[in-house]
Amino acid sequence: MNKLFWIVPAILLMSITARAQEQVTPGWEISGGYSYLKANLGGSSFHLNGVEASATQNLNNWFGGRLEVSAFHGAEAGQTVSAQTFTYGPVFSYRRIRTITPFAKVQLGAVHASAGYLGISANALKFAMVGGGGVDVRVSKMASVRLQGDYLMTRFLGSNQNNIQGTAALVLRFGKK
Description:
Layout: H1 2-22, E1 28-39, E2 46-58, E3 63-76, E4 79-93, E5 100-113, E6 124-138, E7 143-156, E8 159-174
Antiparallel strand pairs: 1-2, 1-8, 2-3, 3-4, 4-5, 5-6, 6-7, 7-8
């Protein structure tokens, strides 16, 4: 009976401590990595490779704001083309599991494309919208690996283009919320 008196509080204390570790939310997350774009799914699609960087400020354990910048380069119809996206919007995270953090996001912004991208005759800056999500897999206290998939809607030549984007990145976490 006396041993049980000490075991129950010890188990409760460990449970509370473990639960608190699961819910540690970083104040900021900075990421960068490789990104792949399959452009114009509804027409003559083509592939571009590039990089993506993002900065996320977490306002609490499930909601934050994310700024993302991507740059892509490749060939379309025998011509070298490039495109860059600049988007910002809310990100919703599920932080109940210590090693993985799934998230969803919706962002608005702009896409800048070079002449030749989708047949445009001159460089252009147009509207872009991103929706998607992914998962951050924790590898250390301050770092995670991010796997992310997005739908990217752009608007050139008076019509919408449906694009998909995949990203693999390293995430560094700073501060606490």
